[in-house]
Structures are given as C-alpha cells and as structure tokens.
Fold each of these.
Amino acid sequence: MEKHSKVKVAARNEEIPKITFLLDKIMSWAGFNGREILEVQLAVEEACNNIIRHGYRGSEGDIRVAVDFVAGSLKVTIEDDAPQFDPTYFDKPDFTADLEKRPVGGLGIHLIRSMVDEMKYELQDGKNRLILAKRAK
Amino acid sequence: MQIMEKSKGDIYIIEISGRMDTISSEEVEAKLDSLIENNEAKVIIDLAAVDYISSVGLRELLAALKRQKERQGSIKLVSLQPFVKDIFKMTGFDKIFSIYSTQEEALNRYA
C-alpha cells in the first residue's frame, strides 16, 4: 500500500492550506490518527513559513511539496528556489530565557524537529530541499 | 476561525474556535490589539475550541502578553486542548503564561 502526491503553490501564506489539506487526505487514507496529522501539518506549516518569511522574503516564488507514503512511513519533501537555507543547522532556542529576552526566531524550527521522526536538509541543484519523515505507529 | 467576546465586570473574555495558524492568527492579533488599546487590563483567552496552534499563533499571544505587561495588565489562558497544551510545554510557553483549566478558575483568580 503506497501513495504519492505532489502540489506546487505560490510562496504566500494563504496557499499553505492547500498543502495541509493534501496532508490530511493522504494521512487519513494511510491510517494516521488525528494527532499525528496535526503534528505533520504543524511541521510543514512551520517549514513553509520559514521559506516565505526568511527565504523568499516577500518576493515571488514557488514551494513544491511531494508527499509519499511507502512502507508505513510518510515522507514530505519541501523544495524551494530561495537562497540556500539549512534549518537543521539551528540549535534549540533558549526557552529558559525570561519573557523580555526570549529570542523570536528558532521557534518554528524547534517545532518542526519535535513533530516528526526525521528532518533532513539537502541542497539539490541549488534548490533547498527539506525532507520530513513520520512513521505510522 | 471564530472569535466570540463577552465581559464579566471588568474582565474581558474572548473565546477562540478553530485553528490558530499563519492566516487566522492575524484575526486574533487584531482583536487583542484593540483590547489592549482600549486598556482592558484583565483578559481571559479561552482556547477550548482550538485544536491547533503554530509558532505564528504563539508569537501573537506572546506579543500581546508583553504589551499587556508594559501596561500593568495581564492575560490568562484557559482550557488548553491536548495538542495545544503539548506545544506550550515544548516551547516553554507554559511557564510564561498563567494557564487555568476553566474560565471559572481564571475568573476567580481575577476576583
């Protein structure tokens, strides 16, 4: 039992629901529970947010997402053409800092890492490629 | 996303339902901004019907809390659902916000 699907969206916030909808469809089909679907949707929303805000920085561009369910594992590949950015390079932010000193960045990347079983970055022909994996329990 | 509002005495309560994601959080931000501008010092945000929150939603809440504190006001959060509760723990937001199980509990704390 396997399934493959792809979606290409413009790098704009209002396009993100198209991706989360696709994840819901495939993950429900694959038997993931509601909680697991929310986790992957969150990881992917955070990744897209980073691409839109810090990658393209308001300029036009595409985000290409491939969703593959093979051998009990979901793989989400998120590709963009923004300048090179490796989110796996970031450490966990200091969450012990008090309110005023809290860093604004790093929160999204920490959430991505916490929501999936695997997070991998590749630079492929000058394109950023983030690969997230979640195993069905 | 839906936002319902009510007040009990000098306490302002907003009940959010839906997902607090990148898009819908803008609505929450606008609502919180107007409350703070109106000098509502005691605010309760009820998240009983929110099953999802992203970092954008968290940042909006944090920004509102910072502004409230500058004005000697406060924000109490109530009825966090399991996924949202875990996100708060994971990010340390559970230590920044005053969180209560029910509206009644938060109202009593304000009394």
Amino acid sequence: MNDNRRPTRTIRVGPISIFSLVIALCVAVLCVLTISTAYANQALAKRQGAYLQGEYTNEVAGQLVLAQIDDTLARTGATNQQTAFTALDAALPTICHDVENAVIQTNGDATTTVTATRDNATITIICSSSVGRQLTIQLGITTSATVEVRSWRTSTPWIEPEQPPLLTMS
Amino acid sequence: MTTLFSRHQEIQQKLNRRTSTGWHAASFMIEVLVLLTIFAAAVCVFTLLFGGALAMSDRTATQVEAMSVAQRTAEEFAIDPAGIETEPIHTNTHEDGDDLVVSIDRTSETHERGTLWFATIVVRDDAGNELYSLDTTRYVAGSQTTSNDNSGESYTNNANVDVEVGDEE
C-alpha cells in the first residue's frame, strides 16, 4: 500500500543555490567594506584639506604680524630693546586686530584669532584657526631693535570633550 | 488474478516515477532561472556600487595629490618667494598618469624694512577643474630680494630661527 503513495512535491534548495547565495553574500560584504572605505578616505581627505587651509591661514597671520611688528619698529625709530618693547606694547593689540581683518580679506576665514603677549624679552603670538590648528610664534628683540624669530611652531591643541550630563535622580 | 494485480502495480509505479522525474526537472529549471535572475541583478547592483566606490577613491586620491602638490609649492614659495616660477607647471606625479597643473598668482607689498609676498596657489586637473587652492604669505625682511639670490640670509634678518612643523601633542 505504501508504494502507491504519491511522492511529496517540495522544492528543496539545492547546493548550487546555497553556494551562489553564499558568494553573493560575500560580494555584498566586500561591497559594503569598499564603499565605507571610500567614504572614510574621502572624509579623511576633506579633513586633511581643512587642516592644511587652517595651517596656511595661520601662516598668513603670522607673516602679517611679523611684517607689522617690523613696520612698527621702523616707524617708531626704536634703537634699543627698551624703546622697542615700549612701542610694541602699545601697538600689539592694534596689530592683532588688523591682522585678523587682513586674514578675513586674504583667506576669507573670519574665525582666525590672533593674540600677542609679552613676557619680559619674549613676545608670544598665537594664531588659531577654526579647524583647531594653532601657530605659536616666539619673537625676540635684538639689541639693535630688530625682530628675531626664536620659535615658529604649528600644533593642534587637544580640546577636552565636554563630559556628558550625568543622570540625575528625580 | 494475482499476476494481473502485480502487473497493474508495476505500471502504476512506472507512471509515478515518470511524473516525479518531470516534476523534479521542472522545479530544477525554475530554481535555476530564479537563481540566475537574482544573481544577474546582484551582479548589476554590485558592479554599480563597486564602480561608484572606485570613482570616489580615485577622486579622493587626486584630491590628496593636489593638496600635496599645493603644500610643496607653498613651501617652495616660502623658501624663495621672489624666484618661484609663476608660469603654470605641469606635474605628473599622479598614479594614473594624469597631469596636475599648478599655477601661482604672486603679488608683493613693500614695507618699511622688507617685502610682504602673497601667493595664491591653485592646483587644477587636465580639464581645468580646480582641485585645491591655498593662500600663503611670506615676509622677507630687507627689501633687496632678487630671484637669483638664494642665500638664506638675504630673506630674513631673523637669527636662530627654530621652525617646528608638526603636532607637538
């Protein structure tokens, strides 16, 4: 009696189908990895470009400050360190402001900040761009009242991320 | 009677076997067709995605190369702002052989004790599309700078220059 029973008509997934699906799955994973790598490289290149722009915006600001300080010393007719420092103490805030405006005109970056401080015989100028690059220049004044560059250093200062708000129990 | 019955059974079994074989063949054909369709669609989609990713990678590589060329030119300008070549320069450093064209727009401003040089460096591809541009400046103390004078002393009166480029942290 069992021999007369009709065979069960079920579609079974063959080994070729499984093999093809596995291949398709592997290719899909590779595709996702390739696309994500391409996007990551593009983002990295954009960041590199922005950093480079920031670095050279700072460079422009630094060179402008250098030129204006040299101009100030020439205009005031400073002949020794004391007269040079007196002239620069009065002129540095104006120089920083003028350079910030000049950087906006030259590079179109309105977020660059220039600060100058004097500590005894060293003038420290810090130019910071919006992307986080920073140029620190240390200038000295020679005995003949000329500018001497002691340090010209670019850096990226670490900014501590803000702490997430703690959960408060009501 | 028994012989007739067994003969009938044999015929029935043969008929069942033929029906089963036909059903298997049809299901196999359907399976193959569905598989081929899905596989062809997947290949098309994957080809498009791989092509897009490849094009994006190529553009990124060109962009990075343009940045590198622009930075190199800016450093050359910083070394010798008066003597740098202002005519468009073709560089052939890109991997796929495409040329990058670097052009420098240079201006100068005379100051009391020196010259302030401005440069806008633009890197373009073969088709003339702008890839990257960089603005830079160089102050040269002492206004007697000439393009033939490459001695470091003529460009600055700054002694003990300590230039450190790179991240300190």
